[in-house]
C-alpha cells in the first residue's frame, strides 16, 4: 500500500475541496494519483474489482489510470492530486486513522496554503504533503504476530542501510541466536531477513536514482554497499535492469 511506503517521490498538481450530496460521477483513466481525507462521507467507490464504502474520517488513495464510479449520499473532503514517480497500484487503497484530528489539521493546512499561493507555496505544500505521507506511514506499520522479534525488527528498520549492518546484532536485540531469529522472521514475513534487507535497500536505491542527485557509486554507498558491482548485481536481480538503465527508463517515461 502507498500508506506503507517510506519513500514517495511526488509532484503536487492540485489541492481541492468538495462538499457534495446525492452525486454520482464516472472517472476514467485519469493521469494522476489522488489522496483524500473525508470529513463527512457516505460514499461508495466501484471499480471492476472493488466496491469500497467510505465513511467519516476515512483516507483514500486512488491510483492513476484507474477507472471507477463514485456514488455519494454525502461527501465532504479535501483531495490532493499528484504524480507519484516511484509507486503505483492497480487498486484503490484506504484506511481509517485512530487519530483523525491530525489529518484534519494537515489537510486543512495544505488546502489553505495551496489556495493562498503565496511565495514558495509549492515548496510549503510539498513539505505538508510529506508530513501527511509520513503520518500515514507511521499509522500503517504492520502489527507483528510474533512479539519476540519486535526489537530486532526495529533495529533492522533503523540500520539496514548501513554498510556495517549485522544480522547477528539484530538477533541479539531479541536475545536469541541468529539461526533461530531467521526462522521466526521467515515465518512472520515469508522471506529471509537477508532478502528483506535487500528489498528495503533496493526501494531506497530506486528513489535515489529517480531523484537524480547522486551517481551510482554514491547510491550504492548510501544503500549500504561498499562494492558498486555487488550493488548493481543485486539491483538488477530485483528490478530486471541495471541502475543506470532504470534511471534512463524513468526519464524516458
Q: Nearest-angstrom radius of gyration? A: 21 Å
Could you list the spans in which at least 5 consecutive residues all have pLDDT below 50? none
**Inertia-based shape:** globular
Please, how many domains? 3
Number of strands: 6
CATH class category name of the largest domain: Mainly Beta
Helicity, as a percent range: 40-55%
Q: Kindly report how far apart the N and C termini lie.
A: 23 Å
CATH architecture tag of the largest domain: Sandwich
What percent strand?
A: 15-25%
Average pLDDT, rounded to a whole number, is: 91
Please identify the structural class as seen in this structure: alpha+beta
| H and E order | EEEEEEHHHHHHHHH
Assigned CATH superfamily of the largest domain: Regulatory protein AraC
Largest sheet: 6 strands, antiparallel
What would the CATH topology of the largest domain be?
Answer: Jelly Rolls
DSSP helix count? 9
Amino acid at each position: 500500500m502507498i500508506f506503507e511506503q517510506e519513500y514517495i517521490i511526488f509532484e503536487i498538481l492540485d489541492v481541492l475541496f468538495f462538499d457534495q450530496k446525492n452525486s454520482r460521477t464516472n472517472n476514467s483513466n485519469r493521469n494522476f494519483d489522488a489522496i483524500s481525507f473525508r470529513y463527512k462521507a457516505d460514499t461508495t467507490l466501484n471499480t471492476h474489482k472493488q466496491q469500497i464504502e467510505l465513511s467519516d474520517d476515512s483516507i483514500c488513495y486512488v491510483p492513476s489510470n484507474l477507472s471507477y464510479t463514485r456514488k455519494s449520499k454525502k461527501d465532504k473532503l479535501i483531495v490532493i492530486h499528484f504524480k507519484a514517480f516511484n509507486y503505483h497500484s492497480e487498486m484503490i487503497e484506504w484506511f481509517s486513522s485512530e487519530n483523525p484530528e491530525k489529518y484534519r489539521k494537515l489537510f486543512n493546512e495544505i488546502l489553505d496554503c495551496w489556495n493562498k499561493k503565496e511565495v514558495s507555496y509549492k515548496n510549503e505544500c510539498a513539505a505538508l504533503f510529506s508530513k501527511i505521507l509520513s503520518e500515514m506511514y507511521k499509522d500503517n506499520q504492520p502489527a507483528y504476530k510474533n512479539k519476540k522479534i519486535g526489537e530486532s525488527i526495529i533495529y533492522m528498520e533503523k540500520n539496514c542501510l548501513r554498510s556495517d549492518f549485522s544480522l547477528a546484532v539484530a538477533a541479539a536485540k531479541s536475545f536469541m541466536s541468529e539461526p533461530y531469529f531467521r526462522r521466526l522472521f521467515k515465518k512472520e514475513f515469508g522471506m529471509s531477513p537477508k532478502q528483506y534487507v535487500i528489498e528495503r535497500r533496493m526501494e531506497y536505491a530506486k528513489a535515489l536514482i529517480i531523484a537524480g542527485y547522486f551517481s551510482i557509486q554514491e547510491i550504492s554507498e548510501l544503500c549500504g554497499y561498499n562494492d558498486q558491482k555487488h550493488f548493481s548485481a543485486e539491483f538488477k536481480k530485483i528490478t530486471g535492469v541495471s541502475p543506470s538503465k532504470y534511471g534512463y527508463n524513468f526519464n524516458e517515461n
